[in-house]
Design a protein that fits this description.
cytoplasm; 8-stranded antiparallel β-sheet; phosphatidylinositol-3-phosphate binding; 35% strand; PH-domain like; 2 domains; 19 strands; alpha+beta; cell projection; BBL5
């Protein structure tokens, strides 16, 4: 079995947490790429407008996560797993370094908490749309490659007896006449062994199948059953217990250059269309144009409206930021009811 699956790892083997967790102010070791993690894009001059407004930093996008590191103090950082992303959009933001600009907005979830992040590109000519194109492209590639990382039951992985190979996946062998003994009675089928996973498919129906990536395997052993000796494959939610999972194939592939060229072409077309439309338009000036502690995490708690849009609760009422009160000339907590004003509250007293 070791010749097929590799030697067993010790209990100290690292877990694959990078794509499933959000960490604040992580140590340098947690920011380094683990085996199998690849940097897909890197951008300097990116501001964390939500929690570190006015601080210049660098944004790294890998096949597992998004990492922002403050340039002045690298102990101030954020690691956002791609599996935690709920919503990706471009929204206006107030940056201390660039003023009012369009920025990348991320609504995320981690456990029972909801966090929102706002990143602003500080380089001239760049902005939220470019960051959106990169992050959205990587997120879509991550979602499309889940078969490399996750157990799949009853999926369309076999068609007419032939295994549907994933990109860059190599088929090693096919073993016919393999019984699946997971139920009370056995089901006859075939076992496929590839460079990424084990696949079993029933001979009676292609829809009755199991796709099991090696990185999800915990133990492989021989055992006795009422049908005789059998091979038992035990799985676990995260990484496996074999050498292969130390350097797994996560399957996320993305070329940021293509998206950047398409975004640049779209911006040129939009600018040309705007210039043509403004030739006969008079523009009038509008008057009066308007490490991982609880405190760090609270800075990114999603507001009630943003959390509702993302399908979950925020971090409570404390997530609401202060607003300026013209009656008092101070920053105060906004009233809970939208129609309530400070003047009305004062008249009640």
């Amino acid at each position: 079995m070791e010749a097929l699956f590799g030697a067993r790892r010790g209990p100290e083997a690292p877990d694959v947490w990078q794509d499933r967790e959000i960490r604040f102010d992580a140590p340098a070791g947690d920011l380094a790429c683990r085996r199998g993690e690849v940097v897909l894009d890197y951008m300097e001059g990116v501001e964390d407008t939500k929690g570190n407004n006015g601080e210049r930093g660098e944004l790294t996008v890998t096949n597992l996560r998004i990492v922002w590191v403050c340039a002045a103090a690298r102990r101030t950082n954020i690691s956002i797993g791609l599996d935690c992303l709920s919503q990706i959009a471009v929204r206006p933001a107030a940056s201390r370094l660039r003023g009012s600009v369009s920025a990348l907005y991320l609504l995320t979830r981690h456990g029972s908490q909801r966090y929102e992040f706002v990143f602003t590109a500080l380089a001239p000519g760049s902005g939220g749309p470019e960051l959106l194109a990169v992050v959205q492209g990587v997120s879509q590639a991550y979602e499309a490659s889940r078969l490399y990382r996750e157990l799949k039951l009853r999926g369309a992985v076999v068609s007419e007896g032939d295994l549907r190979l994933l990109p860059n996946e190599q088929a090693f062998s096919k073993v016919s006449g393999v019984w699946n003994l997971s139920g009370d009675q056995g089901n006859l089928g075939a076992l496929y062994i590839t460079s990424v996973r084990l696949v079993w498919c029933s001979a009676a129906s292609d829809a009755f199948s199991i796709s099991l990536p090696f990185m999800q395997i915990k133990h492989v052993r021989l055992a006795d059953s009422k049908f005789g000796p059998c091979l038992v494959v035990e799985t676990m939610p995260r990484a496996g217990s074999y050498v292969y999972s130390q350097s797994p194939v996560f399957g996320v592939e993305y070329d940021p250059g293509i998206v950047r060229r398409e975004a640049a072409a779209a911006e040129r077309d939009a600018a040309a269309a705007k210039a043509h439309a403004e030739e006969d338009v008079t523009i009038l000036d509008a008057a009066g144009a308007a490490g991982a502690d609880a405190w760090a995490a609270a800075c990114y708690c999603a507001s009630a409206d943003a959390a509702a849009a993302g399908g979950g609760g925020g971090c409570g009422a404390d997530a609401r930021g202060p607003v300026f009160s013209p009656e008092l000339g101070l920053a105060v907590e906004p009233p809970r009811d939208a129609g309530t004003t400070l003047r009305a509250l004062w008249s009640v007293l």
